[in-house]
């Protein structure tokens, strides 16, 4: 199955290497390739749980399942792929949010490391060393699909790898395993101080930037002050801190794969829209700071990113391709899993109207 999917993705990538405009690399092409990949994963999830009683082996034993998904992916238009993906993700997220609401949320972050700030490389290295020396870890969290997720010291062997995110159990492709938390900014309107030496920045294709570093810091502060809150109270409503008690908001701890391994999750933009249940909105681990006023969508209440399993995962650490810009120097520890993919992701942004996109892919 994986080899067939890989070949399909390779053909999609080759399709976008050159285009009739003479531009070698376009971000929109990589967005379409990412959507294609995510569609395959979420269609696999649907087939396993809706047609094969949640039995992944039963799904694999029937070659018609695999062939059907790949054929459908190759014949489904881009906008229809996105629509189907959104439906699958929305169903899963409602399941995850209802579960955390049932116990009032929980902080799955490891205990804070005192006196070690986030805002310099020197302090970051001290944090990573302390994490490995003390084996500092969070509490395992039950996922609605029967496995656990756990933040603890990473297996990645370099000095900048501190925490990692682990799966305890088995995960089927297309499963949402984590959320990427953080304050969200319009990429054209973000303070330089937020960007400086910040490796927790997650960028969406629509220009939204999510700052996961600020979220780490806030969660640590709230944990350290929790005793004081209990004793003397706080001037904020209880619901105001629920966004920091989303146990699945740990995507900011997922590492880039080492040279001898490959990514097993993919990042995909998700918009929380009006109609998302009121009692669950408080748990959304994203807070809007700045937004593009010209391309705003009144139906969207929050913009986020979800991390989705692309491969079967069994008792393993999660890895995400960070896709560092190939035109800039890499850190010593970074290896590029797919150079063509990175070049497209950091390629030119083509200016086209939304109407031309919709008409082309309907």
Automatic annotation (TrEMBL):
TM ranges: none
Gene3D superfamilies tied to this protein: SET domain
Protein name: SET domain-containing protein
Record-linked InterPro entries: SET_dom_sf, SETD9
């Amino acid at each position: 199955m994986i080899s067939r999917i890989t070949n399909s993705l390779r053909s999609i990538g080759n399709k976008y290497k050159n285009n009739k405009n003479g531009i070698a690399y376009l971000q929109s092409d990589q967005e379409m390739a990412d959507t294609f990949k995510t569609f395959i994963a979420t269609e696999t999830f649907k087939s396993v749980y809706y047609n094969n009683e949640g039995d992944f082996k039963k799904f694999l034993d029937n070659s018609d399942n695999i062939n059907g998904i790949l054929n459908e992916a190759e014949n489904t238009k881009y906008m229809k792929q996105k629509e189907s993906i959104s439906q699958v993700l929305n169903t899963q997220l409602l399941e995850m949010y209802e579960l955390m609401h049932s116990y009032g949320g929980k902080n799955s972050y490891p205990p804070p490391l005192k006196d070690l700030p986030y805002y310099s490389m020197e302090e970051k290295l001290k944090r990573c060393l302390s994490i490995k020396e003390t084996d500092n870890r969070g509490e395992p969290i039950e996922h609605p699909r029967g496995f656990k997720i756990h933040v603890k010291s990473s297996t990645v062997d370099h000095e900048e790898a501190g925490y990692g995110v682990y799966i305890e159990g088995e995960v089927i492709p297309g499963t949402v395993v984590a959320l990427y938390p953080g304050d969200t900014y319009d990429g054209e309107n973000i303070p330089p101080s937020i960007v400086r030496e910040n490796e927790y920045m997650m960028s969406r294709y629509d220009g939204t930037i999510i700052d996961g570093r600020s979220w780490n810091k806030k969660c640590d502060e709230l944990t350290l002050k929790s005793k004081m809150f209990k004793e003397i109270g706080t001037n904020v409503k209880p619901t105001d801190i629920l966004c920091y008690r989303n146990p699945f908001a740990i995507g900011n701890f997922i590492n880039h794969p080492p040279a001898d391994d490959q990514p097993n999750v993919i990042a995909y933009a998700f918009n929380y829209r009006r109609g998302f249940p009121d009692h669950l909105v408080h748990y959304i681990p994203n807070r809007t700071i700045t937004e593009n006023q010209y391309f705003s969508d009144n139906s969207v209440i929050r913009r986020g990113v979800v991390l989705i399993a692309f491969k079967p995962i069994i008792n393993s650490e999660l890895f995400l391709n960070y896709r560092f810009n190939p035109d800039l120097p890499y850190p010593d520890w970074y290896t590029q899993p797919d150079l063509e993919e990175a070049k497209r992701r950091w390629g030119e942004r083509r200016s086209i109207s939304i109407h031309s996109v919709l008409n082309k892919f309907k």
